[in-house]
Amino acid sequence: MALPSGKHDVFQAIADPTRREVLKLLTDHEMPVSAISGHFPITRTAVSKHLRILAEAGLVKERKVGRETRYRLETQPLQELKSWLNYYERYWENKLSALQRFVESDEE
Amino acid sequence: MALPSGKHDVFQAIADPTRREVLKLLTDHEMPVSAISGHFPITRTAVSKHLRILAEAGLVKERKVGRETRYRLETQPLQELKSWLNYYERYWENKLSALQRFVESDEE
DNA sequence: TTGACATGAAACCAAAAGGTGTCATATAAT
DNA sequence: ATTATATGACACCTTTTGGTTTCATGTCAA
């Protein structure tokens, strides 16, 4: 499940700050490429490439409407990130994990 | 808070599969460089570079013990990832988000 | 039908990423 | 003292990344 179709996975996709900005932009709003690229100091083509990488990771979906291609956010692949994170969550410094470590404790 | 000291942040640090493996290896175990690199098909030097990147992101801490340098996991920076993820969590496919989207809906 | 948009595709580029091998240095061990 | 170990520091190489510019194509508007 969640087999990454392309060569880009979700970890790589969100590594770039611009791509994270794009995702935030698409929150609640389906947007065409030019509207998206209007928010960045880089060329439309560069934004288009970022969008393709996000699409490969499944984080956005495209829909062609007339002469424009509209992109929308797809959060489902973030589940993988969530579960990855979940593995380390028990080591965090908070009441619950502190309790856990106390109970399970066998360290120095 | 969590100001990234070096040029590598946590998003970039976890983008690489090898580095994620290193983090998993260090779970519960402080390890010297050679012991870590023994788990990978790449050279010790390469592993060392990965460790430096992880250290820049604050995900590992080093401690010199005699002639070896031991690394241990530091999960605190993952909090940033967690809160980033948290922003999108409300859009996931579950009862609550479905209800939200129904209420706020103004799409075709 | 003639332009004006919106986008994708291709060729190209500089810099960063991920590796390698070699060498220097500090610390054990004999 | 001498040798072996553990690691960091360099120099170097190849591929990937993030960008650019230019050109082709499809679609909407006059």
TrEMBL record, chains A, B:
GO molecular function: DNA binding; DNA-binding transcription factor activity
Region forming the signal peptide: none
SMART domains: HTH_ARSR
Protein origin, superkingdom: Bacteria
UniProtKB keywords: DNA-binding, Transcription, Transcription regulation
One family name in Pfam for this protein: HTH_5
Keyword DNA-binding in record: yes
Keyword rRNA-binding in record: no
Gene3D superfamilies: Winged helix-like DNA-binding domain superfamily/Winged helix DNA-binding domain
Domain spans labelled HTH arsR-type: 1-93
Entry-linked NCBIfam families: HTH_metalloreg (NF033788)
Protein name according to UniProt: ArsR family transcriptional regulator
Native organism: Paenibacillus taihuensis
Lineage: Bacteria, Bacillati, Bacillota, Bacilli, Bacillales
